């Protein structure tokens, strides 16, 4: 009896949204009978959270931090005096405008940046009916605006280690890239030179690309 289902639909549905874009859709409620309900509310929120713990002897120290980028909330339907939500299928449209200065969605090992849309049916003296969905935000960064991205990447190293089975002499490695910044899908060309000044053979040289993420918390 009462509300049987509440759902959130995006119309039109997109896999990825961009800052400044409109996020539109509908909240749908299916009720099998007239139901006491204060309001049907939809909330659009963008937030970030990090948390990790460090063991120090017998104690555990926790580090955590949160950021909220925006929070939009609107009432789609509200009761008047003793008015009930009638039985049947109901649908209410919503439309939110994404801010421009927001970061991209992110899921990490100890933190995340998430954007969610939550619908809530406020039931007096009862359990609220809720539904939450998540959307992905992509905020492209223009490398043309970054002076550091144009700077060539140069790595120089010299390995002078030796053992009883080799003859002294360093192995010099010089790696150079045309620029330090690159975009998704770009062929990032690395030019390297290895100079073996010793008598021991160099078996192989490997170049690897890593992503480093830094989390900040108190």
From TrEMBL:
Residues 8-144 form the Arrestin-like N-terminal domain. Signal peptide: none annotated. One of its GO terms (biological process) is protein transport. It comes from the Eukaryota. One of its GO terms (cellular component) is cytoplasm. Pfam families: Arrestin_N. Belongs to the arrestin family. This is Arrestin domain-containing protein 17. The lineage of its organism: Eukaryota, Metazoa, Ecdysozoa, Arthropoda, Crustacea.
């Amino acid at each position: 009896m009462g509300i049987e289902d509440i759902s959130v639909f995006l119309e039109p549905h997109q896999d990825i949204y961009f800052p400044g874009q409109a996020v539109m859709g509908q909240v749908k409620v299916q009720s099998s009978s007239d139901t006491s309900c204060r309001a049907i509310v939809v909330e659009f929120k963008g937030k970030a959270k990090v948390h990790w713990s460090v063991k120090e002897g017998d104690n555990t120290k926790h580090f955590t931090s949160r950021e909220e980028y925006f929070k939009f909330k609107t009432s789609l339907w509200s009761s008047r005096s003793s008015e009930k939500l009638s039985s049947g299928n109901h649908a209410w449209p919503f439309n939110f405008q994404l801010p421009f200065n927001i970061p991209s969605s992110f899921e990490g090992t100890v933190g995340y940046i998430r954007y969610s849309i939550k619908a809530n049916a406020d039931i007096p003296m009862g359990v609220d009916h809720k539904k939450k969905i998540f959307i992905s935000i992509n905020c492209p960064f223009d490398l043309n605006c970054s002076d550091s991205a144009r700077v060539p990447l140069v790595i120089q190293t010299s390995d002078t280690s030796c053992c009883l089975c080799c003859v002294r002499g360093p192995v010099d490695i010089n790696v150079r890239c045309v620029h330090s910044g690159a975009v998704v899908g770009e062929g990032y060309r690395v030019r390297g030179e290895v100079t073996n000044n010793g008598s021991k053979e160099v078996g192989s040289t490997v170049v690897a690309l890593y992503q480093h993420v830094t989390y900040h918390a108190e």
